[in-house]
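ok new one. same drill as before - structure tokens go in, u give me an amino acid for every spot. 313 of them this time. try not to just spam alanines like last time pls lmao
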């Protein structure tokens, strides 16, 4: 399968890691992005672990000529960047994707919505007539039409540690912005600890810290799906999480591959239980790590998406 991923130049965790997964699943020679995005080709910038170093195969003009010649099997379009980060949809359509739309004759279009927003972008659906629409914040209760499919975050094998079995001297770890619904949980932990709970970390410092802790905490952010939800088990820490309400294919299971909570008091209670029952914690964190490798790497997420696309092209 030959894929063109139309995306934004600004950082976008969901689609950046999806690009990595597609390259791993289909081969990087079969996956091109438009317009050119330096962070996918070795230029380091941004907060998230989304810097990849894939070779530059084509110029943007060559990619557009391939659209005109019908040389892609599918065109993927990132319908929205993360809302906090940037290029307006109108500017993107006018300056970037307009060229692809005008040159595309009959290659199937699939929309990728990895944004924090819960609604469906029907403006894009009306304009581009996609065969499929993959939605990160997908809720079964919304009764979406069949062409809208769930597609949650994942975590790249590139950033997974080779060894998760070193000593873990510390109990639990979290880093993130203290905003929206997270605040009651963070305040409760600060009360429990008797001090501030958040420090700023570089990506490398963050990954090292996760390897030193037995428990990795995940709190819902602007959207239900969070990077921490996959980062913690990827590094062999027990996933202690505020349970997402979205559909996640092959999700973690409470008491088997993760531990879930609903309230701040329940969170503290479960942290204490895990700290006092090391055998329980070790069993679940190692099972969670294996579950992550089986279902939630970028390669596995891309494969999940490609299997759906193969049915319509």
């Amino acid at each position: 399968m030959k894929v063109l991923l139309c995306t934004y130049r600004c950082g976008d965790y969901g689609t950046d890691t999806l690009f990595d997964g597609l390259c791993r699943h289909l081969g990087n020679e079969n996956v091109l992005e438009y317009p050119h995005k330096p962070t996918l080709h070795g230029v380091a910038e941004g907060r998230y672990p989304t810097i990849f170093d894939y070779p530059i195969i084509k110029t943007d003009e060559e990619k557009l000529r391939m659209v005109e010649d019908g040389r892609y099997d599918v065109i993927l379009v990132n319908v929205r960047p993360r809302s906090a980060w940037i290029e307006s949809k109108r500017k993107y359509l006018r300056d970037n994707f307009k060229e692809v739309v005008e040159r595309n004759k009959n290659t199937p279009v699939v929309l990728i919505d990895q944004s924090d927003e819960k609604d469906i972008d029907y403006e894009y659906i009306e304009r581009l007539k996609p065969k499929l629409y993959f939605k990160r914040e997908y809720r079964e209760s919304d009764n979406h039409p069949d062409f809208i499919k769930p597609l949650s975050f994942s975590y790249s094998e590139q950033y997974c540690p080779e060894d998760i079995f070193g000593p873990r001297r510390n109990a639990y770890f979290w880093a993130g912005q203290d905003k929206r619904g997270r605040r009651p949980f963070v305040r409760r932990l600060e009360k429990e600890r008797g001090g501030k709970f958040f420090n700023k970390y570089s990506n490398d410092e963050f990954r090292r810290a996760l390897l030193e802790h037995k428990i990795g905490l995940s709190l819902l952010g602007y959207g239900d799906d969070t990077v921490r939800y996959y980062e913690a088990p990827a590094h062999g820490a027990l996933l202690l999480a505020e349970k997402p309400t979205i559909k996640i294919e092959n999700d973690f299971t409470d008491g088997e591959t993760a531990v879930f909570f609903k309230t701040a008091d329940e969170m503290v209670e479960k942290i204490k239980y895990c700290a006092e029952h090391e055998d329980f914690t070790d069993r679940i964190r190692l099972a969670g790590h294996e579950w992550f490798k089986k279902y939630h790497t970028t390669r596995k997420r891309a494969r999940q998406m490609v299997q759906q696309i193969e049915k319509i092209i």
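Confidence is low (pLDDT under 50) at residues 83-87. and btw Strands lie at 3-6, 31-34, 74-78, 109-113, 132-135, 148-150, 170-173, 213-218, 238-242, 259-261.
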